[in-house]
Amino acid sequence: MLTRVRAATDRFLSVAWRARAGTRVLLCLLAMPVFAQTATLRSQAERDMSAGRYARAETGLLEALSTDPENESLWFLLGITRAQLKKTDPAIEAFEKALPLASDPAPVYFNLGLLQMEKNDLAKAEDTYRRGLALDPSNIPANQNYALLLMQRGEFRDAAISLERLKKLTPADVSVRASLIEAYVKAASKAQARSEIDELIQSRLATLPQGLSLARVLRAEGETDAARHVLESLRNYWPASAELHGELGLLLIDQDQFREAAEELKQALQLDRDSVKYSLGFGEALISSQQYPAALQFLFEANRKFVNQPNIQYQLAFTDVCLQRFPEAISILKELGRERPDSGKVQFLLGGAYELEGELQGAEDHYRNAIRLSPQDPTNYRVLGSMLQKLGREHLDESIQLLRKALSLDPANVETKIVLARSLERQESLDEAAALLEQAITTDPASRRAHTALAELYLRQKRPGRAEQEQSIAATLEDQKMREWEIWGRQTGSGP
To answer: Is residue 493 part of a domain?
Structure first.
């Protein structure tokens, strides 16, 4: 997108001061001696500026201004010099002195606005740029900076208008078109954004790296639909790009389109077999789409290929857990735990493997390690709280305490509310349990488990009518087999 770096600023200012040099005209012979001295000092200052001797140029310009304080070009050059010296406030002061004297104030406005942007005085900079563009609406750098300014201020509709004008001035500039797409998206003008994307792709102006960059920016902004449209459009022109298939696959994972993601990432790996990034993405897509046998076969080979790659090892162990290959998972995770002693995710998964194998004491130890290493992860508290109840009623109080902690960290989590409600029911806190289940159903009306639990609770509260209603709703919902990765949370994406 449009970026404002110091080098670009220096080039723009440098071009501006050269364009303004020598614009004043001698008006009377009586000024001749002073003008000659001023012209000499100005010429020397210009040579110093060209050579990068800005401190010396500033001294010469101040001397010239002491004898010719109404000279607009001297004030203008002084502003440029001070800007190069990063003396922002003095530079602004110099441009403000030049402004009322200028016969062509547009360049003064543009330089002044740029410095106000650097000071983060965005409201003032916007007004300054608007004044300059009213005088010189076709100035390309000024339009670029003005559009950037409007984007920074969140005025995306106005930014789009400015970028549309800039697009007419520079129709082949892909960065301008990409910025226009971003502005449309942020202004909620989805149809215009899609139209601009189609026009850009069909124009063939954008290279593949530029198109991928646009998709990444949109994805980073949370605009996954727009990013997906970019990538799918690019795929028509570059079907043999591993990066294109890979990035589309990763984006589809973001959208929970796991089987489609697996297909794209499979193609990416056929084109680039040595990509760890896309191998990890493919592993995650296979696991998340419950293709566990395929995931095991792929990750076993990937683990042999990418030696000492902990993320691959972690995904392999996770797949082993899902396939109930607990000894294999525990073996991998113990070694990984020695290599990554600070990883709460490794300890958590190791606890899960032990719990599912029936070794509850080992599970408890590793869950507690996970809490120690990742104290802000609500899943650790929820799973330990749930598991402790298997150890006996004497652990019920601690279980409830842990589940309350999980809920405080993630107040909207439906699974936590269901487990906590079941625990409170055992403690005979029926009203609080019912309230939690009612909240869970409000959040996720399709949760069969929540409706079933609430129906049982209503029966205990001697509310048969409500219980029958919840049972009826539960009966209409499909059985939801809760997958381990779903109950525990998405664990495979970022690795240990």
So the answer is: no
pLDDT at 283: 96
How wide is the angle at C-alpha 262 spanned by C-alphas 259 and 265, nearest 5°? 155
What's the pTM value of the predicted model, to 2 decimals? 0.71
Residue 160 lies in a domain: no
Residue 208 amino acid letter: L
Maximal C-alpha separation, the chain: 109
The one-letter code for the residue type at 243 is: E
The HSE-up count of residue 127 (CA atoms within 13 Å, CB side) is 3
d(CA 16, CA 225): 42
What angle do the packed helices 72-84 and 6-20 form, to 10 degrees? 160
Q: What is the CATH number of the domain that holds 433?
A: 1.25.40.10
The pLDDT value given to residue 452: 93
Nearest to 119 by CA among 151, 88, 97: 88
List pLDDT tens digits, range 440-485. Answer: 999 999 999 999 999 999 999 999 999 999 999 988 886 544 443 4
* Residue 126 host element (H or E): helix 122-135
Rounded to an integer, what distance in angstroms lies between the CA atom of residue 471 and that of residue 468? 5
Angle at 35 between CA 32 and CA 37, to 5 degrees: 110
Boundary-marking domain end, from 150, 184, 203 = 150
For 31, residues 6+ apart whose C-beta sits below 8 A from its C-beta are none
The answer for residues whose C-beta is within 8 angstroms of residue 402's C-beta and 6 or more apart is 381, 382, 384, 385, 388
Cβ(187)–Cβ(163) below 8 Å: no
Structure tokens belonging to residue 255: 């959208």
SS3 for 379? helix
- Tracing tokens 């599912």 back to the chain, one arrives at 356
* Cα–Cα separations (whole angstroms), residue 295 to 292, 315, 413: 5, 9, 28
